[in-house]
């Protein structure tokens, strides 16, 4: 493994251990066994390294989510599958709690560090497409896929915030299913079967 990979691995570990805002360049050097010059050479700055590490860590979470969803039961009504989906997401929140805490730290940087906004914008675009495909299946219309992916991102981000703040009262998959049922009925649509 070269210095670039060692730095990325160390940055991911620092995100989990210390968070985004408290990780220093010296922490990254100590965790990677590299030197300060390596950060500048490979990434340009500590923030760029942490941003890349965050995007990769979120990508790894997405892969794990995909595997967990593939292993989850796919039978039942659309509402039952919706519940299963959100139970899988909530279970992974527990495993990746430190990542989501660091993620919210990054959100606070978008107004002050333009590079963070660029990195998050790229991540949002990739996330929309991936979530639409992973959670809903293939959607041929690009605009609809964007909207569905954005909807799932909004649900995940909101659920993540509730889960981080008050996990004992955060919605479960069953709660999400019931809410969707009530919303669909309130819109005068037939309940998904």
Taking the alpha carbons of the first and last residues, their distance comes to 51 Å
Uncertain spans, ≥5 residues at pLDDT below 50? none
CATH class category label = Mainly Alpha
Sheet of most strands: none
In CATH terms, the superfamily is Tetracycline Repressor, domain 2
Q: H/E series, N to C?
A: HHHHHHHHH
- Estimated structural class: mainly alpha
Q: Number of folding domains?
A: 1
Could you please say which CATH topology applies here? Tetracycline Repressor, domain 2
What's the total helix number? 9
**Globular, elongated, flat, extended or rod-shaped: what is the shape?**
elongated
Rg, Å, rounded: 19 Å
Number of strands: 0
The CATH architecture term is Orthogonal Bundle
Give the DSSP E fraction (strand runs of 2 or more residues). under 5%
Q: What's the mean pLDDT score?
A: 87
User: What percentage of residues falls in helices of 4 or more residues?
Assistant: over 70%
Oligomer: single chain
Structure characterization notes:
This protein has 9 helices and no strands. The protein is 76% helix and 0% strand. It has helices spanning 3-17, 25-32, 36-43, 46-71, 78-95, 97-107, 114-136, 142-165, 173-186. It has one domain (47-186): Tetracycline Repressor, domain 2. The protein is elongated. It has 193 residues and is mainly alpha-helical.
List the helices and strands and how they pair.
Blueprint: H1 3-17, H2 25-32, H3 36-43, H4 46-71, H5 78-95, H6 97-107, H7 114-136, H8 142-165, H9 173-186
Pick out its properties:
9 helices, 76% helix, Tetracycline Repressor, domain 2, mainly alpha, 193 residues, single chain
